[in-house]
Amino acid sequence: MAISLKPENLKRYKDVAMLLMKYGRSDIVKNAGLDDILKEEALTSTEAPKAEELARDLEQMGPTFIKLGQLLSTRPDLLPYAYLEALTRLQDKVEPFSFAEVEEIITTELGVRISKAFAEFSSTPMAAASLGQVHRAKLRDGRDVAVKVQRPGIRERIVQDLDSLLEIAEMLDKHTKTGQRYDFSSMLEEFRKSLLQELDYRQEARNLVTFAENLSEFEDIVVPQPIEDYTTSRVLTMEYIKGKKITTLSPLARIDIDGDSLAEELFRAYLQQILVDGFFHADPHPGNVFLTDDNRIAIIDLGMIARISPRLQENLLQLLLAISEGRGEDAATQAIKMGEARANFDEAKFRREVADMVVRNQNSQLSDINAGQVALEMTRVSGENGFRLPPDITMMAKALLNLDQVGQTLSPRFDINGAIRRNASEIMQQRMMKSLSPGNIFASMIETKDFLERLPSRINQVLDMIANNQLKINADVIDEKSLMEGIQKIANRITLGILLASLIIGAALIMRVETSFRIFGYPALAVVFFLIAAIGAIALAASIVLTDVSRKKKPDEE
């Protein structure tokens, strides 16, 4: 047996094994030893399920697997496109839990009864999902609010499911080639971290505040703010925004809004989140984007966020520009900079496939190509060629995938590649301004101060080592003879430069010496020195230029 079975996790082991068997991965089940917990008829089943069945099966298995399905919908390197499409339509909707349980949770979390905390509180939820449900209410001061209450016992259930999945992932990584190829354990760790953060409503409240600050310059975008005194890890109270979901807009309603402008504004806001702030909403699907009564865009449900390091932001910006401008080779180069090559990485094939993919999508409009799908396709190409892109790329791809759907709803004519090119210069300016912030300047000054303080002692150490004949240079070279010849040429140039400088200085000094032997009214010896120095300088410059040009041409010719 390849897996240590825990009685409390036995049902989940069986559920996962059944899924793998049902959807064509019996090899993984048998290699990992999971077949022992399945009945014989399950192992011999030849039924070919459809992609929609996988989505339904995951929905029936509960919230952890619904979220897992949403993660898998962003992994074209793991599943065929038909399955990705089915999983993107996963419905995170379940029956609401009772109002008595809502009262109990709010009373426990806030320390007061609902009637004391709120002037009004609707017993019927506005929406119910696998992790929680939302009720409309009114505070004592008259403000309308939305109260999100976490589903009873959901944290404990998810933690147990995650433990089971992590055990299975570790077993697959050890005993199957597929696991060794995709590193399921690392994938589950990222998934676990993201899901547990989503279960902490205090974190979501902080996200609301941060996003509102970061997007304050976008007048057409609204982020509801949390009510701090009414928020805990299981209860989130925030401003109620009147409006309707983007997906419910009728064709007649779209006539009354400036869809092109709203789509541009929303996309520009997400470019800033990803490429400037490094802190972005990773789940902007149409259900989380509202059109307010005053025709603005409201972003809600900020439980799932992702962060991108400054270094990765630079590469992402260049990658998006390369894709939007149809520069396939440059796109492949940027992808290689961001990822990690494995032993079987086929770089030539990877570059060729990425270049072909980018060229196919050049100048496509939103109605023809999904920008998120391009990024996901690159993830698939990477996996097939022994290359691993960082998890942040997958999160960004998912955000763009959902954002494209919102953009299509607002304005089917919106050109996402054109939007990237239009906003690239502004994004660069924002990044430069961010790098010139007082904090970054002070940090650079401190580093410079530290460098200058250490410089004299380091120079003394080098000089002492030279004086004691202890200085050693380790050079990884192919031809030591060529290296020594190059060093000698450099030394000769430096020596000649010093001699020419000495001639100029000597000539300047001799200029003051009175003599009857003159040329053009100046002391003859000084003029001779100046001429020799000028001729030598011209010859040295010509030699440097000709040598460097000839060296540049040789690699090109080869």
Give structural notes.
The chain has 558 residues and is of the alpha+beta class. Among the domains are: 244-435, no CATH class; 480-557. Helices cover 61% and strands 9% of the residues. The protein has helices spanning 10-22, 26-32, 40-43, 51-61, 63-72, 81-88, 99-110, 114-117, 154-175, 177-182, 184-198, 201-214, 251-255, 259-277, 310-324, 328-338, 347-360, 371-384, 391-410, 416-435, 438-467, 480-510, 524-557; strands spanning 118-121, 127-128, 132-139, 144-150, 221-222, 235-239, 243-245, 279-281, 289-292, 297-299, 305-307, 340-341, 387-388, 518-519, 522-523. The strands form five sheets. Strands 1, 2, 3, 4 and 6 form a five-stranded antiparallel beta sheet that branches. It starts with 9 loop residues before the first helix and ends with a helix. The model is unreliable at 25-48 (pLDDT under 50).
